[in-house]
Amino acid sequence: MLGIVNVTADSFSDGGRFLDPAQAIAQGLKLRDEGADFIDVGGESTRPGAAPVAIDEELRRVMPVVEALARQGVAVSVDTMKPEVMRAAIDAGCAVVNDVNAFLAPGAVEAVAGAQAGLIVMHMKGTPFTMQQDPRYGDVVGEVGAFLASRARALEAAGVASHRIALDPGFGFGKTLEHNKALFRALPALAALGYPVAVGLSRKKMIGDFTGRPVTERAAGSVAAALLAVQNGASLVRVHDVKETVDALNVWMELKQEGQGSP
Ligand code: HH2
Predict the structure, then answer these.
(1) Are strands 96-99 and 118-122 parallel, antiparallel or unpaired?
(2) Pocket (CB within 6 angstroms of ligand 1)
């Protein structure tokens, strides 16, 4: 499980809460204590319509948090599209690089290839600024799966061992509600590509669409989505509400019948 800490002013659910490094570090430690395996630190919001953040500003936001958490033995994931931030975070001991842009930026593959960090490769159609403007697909499941498989091959061709790679269909990143639902139901097929599958559904618009709740009241809906995602083959869930998700997963694992597989 990845616990989310956004060091941004404008993230859709926790924007502005953790811009102060001390608060972001405290939140990372809290989520680690609640059971997160990794703390996913991001300095650039990717919500629909978000404007890009300059390299220096992103480094200034995330690096004090990445460095402090890594120094304290926390397994850190850095959520970035920028090779410069990837390199700095890896040098600081980051365990995972999570790129919503699938390591497509010039220099991104080279920035991570020689390191040992795990890599989360996510599908996005367009850029955060434009992605929700009428996204269209012929076959969303086929296109997202083919894209992710081709990015995994590109990383492997650059020397990345396959066990370092996880794939994420990118819920809400250039997708309508129907696209998201189709991709969710296809998680078993995505898992069948042979890489661990990561999903991020926490507090997203889709949860709001199903429940009618604002961002601040989507924890229960997000926990339900995380459980079903694991049941559908996801190995990694990226969540804001770590404690609640850990409890729900523990109860589910204790009660599910033998032979149903484990997350
Ligand atoms: N979603 C967000 C950010 N990073 N990374 C992966 N691998 N998968 C996701 O679905 C994903 C992600 C968006 O959520 P959040 O960080 O809460 O908001 P914001 O982008 O506004 O900072």
Answers:
(1) parallel
(2) 4, 6, 8, 11-13, 42, 45-47, 79, 98, 100, 120, 122, 168, 170-171, 198, 200, 238
Of the candidates 64, 173, 160, 61, the residue with the CA atom closest to the CA atom of residue 108: 160
The domain in which residue 109 lies consists of: 2-260
Quick check: helix, strand or coil at residue 201? coil
Residue whose CA is closest, atom 3 of ligand 1? 46
**198 by DSSP, 3-state: which?**
strand
Whether 47 is catalytic: no
Mean pLDDT across the chain, nearest whole number?
Answer: 95
- Kindly indicate the confidence band of residue 259, based on its pLDDT and cuts at 50, 70 and 90: low
> What is the Å distance from ligand 1's center to 117 Cα?
19
- Please give the average per-residue pLDDT across 82-91, as a whole number: 98
Contact (Cβ atoms closer than 8 angstroms) between residue 121 and residue 112: no
**Number of domains into which the chain is organized:** 1
Of all protein residues, whose CA lies closest to atom 18 belonging to ligand 1?
Answer: 11
Which CATH number characterizes residue 125's domain? 3.20.20.20
Predicted confidence (pLDDT) per residue in 101-141, tens digit: 999 999 999 999 999 999 999 999 988 888 788 889 999 99
Q: Select which of 47, 151, 218, 238 is catalytic.
A: 238
